[in-house]
Design brief:
single chain, seven-stranded parallel sheet, Rossmann fold, globular, alpha/beta, about 50% helix, 9 helices
Length: about 260
């Protein structure tokens, strides 16, 4: 069956900021927003991957996005980067809090320092990015904030308690901020991806046994790819979802 995907005219010229946009799901989001004519900026520490992405978009005839190197654990640097996006592209009215790192770890080995670093990597920057863009969105008359959660804690996955704790908290952050920002026309939602076949996931964890177990657990018997999540993000960013907020949107092929 030939697949034809929706286009969202409301995204044209909209200023979109994607965190962790150099690779994986984030890179697909950057690409899809660029295809829709948005003014895209992305933040990442992976400068080489960012360069490859920008080159690929240029070759495809799309305007290159604005890339700003940024360690999201450094909140001062995050705030400065968002201010730069505002200065160079205009007010951010779509924020995609995509960045995360699902590093595995044994609960017995977790130190206070490691716990705090995992919170900084997977949770803290989402709030401070929201705090930084909210005034721009209020002035603009509204906006869409899309936070990234994870299926891992919903599925009761072990082996990374700091990560699953941070990702569970993302959904609480979404609910609270949707209530606080709703009067200003700002929508806040969570996207919960299933196991998405990014290159990192394939390289580190996809074995024949893991793949077989995954497909048994899913209602739809096909592997998820980054575009599957990006299509949900596009819809949540667009005016088509204008009355959708404070919700969790699961893209997992019916696993959960």
């Amino acid at each position: 069956m030939t697949q034809v995907f929706a286009a969202y005219p409301s995204l044209r010229d909209r200023v979109v900021l994607v965190t962790g946009g150099a690779s994986g799901i984030g890179a697909e989001e950057v690409t899809q927003f660029a295809r829709h004519g948005a003014k895209v900026a992305f933040l990442d520490i992976a400068e080489e991957a960012a360069g490859i992405l920008i080159a690929s978009l240029r070759e495809a005839g799309m305007p290159p996005p604005l890339f700003l190197p940024c360690d999201l654990r450094d909140i001062a640097a995050l705030r400065a980067a968002i201010a730069t996006v505002n200065r160079r592209l205009g007010a951010v009215t779509v924020l995609v809090n995509n960045a995360a790192n699902d590093q595995r770890h044994n609960y017995e080995d977790v130190t206070v320092e490691y716990w705090d670093e995992r919170m900084a990597t997977n949770l803290r920057h989402q709030f401070f990015a929201i705090q930084a863009v909210a005034p721009m969105m209020r002035t603009a008359g509204g906006g869409s904030i899309i936070n990234f959660g994870s299926i891992s804690w919903h599925a009761g996955q072990g082996g990374m308690p700091a990560y699953t704790s941070a990702k569970a908290a993302v959904e609480g952050l979404t609910k609270g901020m949707a209530r606080d920002l709703g009067p200003h026309g700002i929508r806040v939602n969570t996207v919960i991806p299933g196991w998405i076949m990014t290159q990192r996931q394939i390289d580190l964890w996809l074995t024949p046994e893991a793949e077989a177990n995954l497909l048994r657990a899913q209602c739809l018997k096909a592997k998820l790819v980054p575009a599957d999540v990006a299509h949900m993000v596009l819809w949540l960013a667009s005016d088509d979802s204008r009355m959708c907020t404070s919700q969790s949107w699961v893209v997992d092929a019916g696993r959960m």
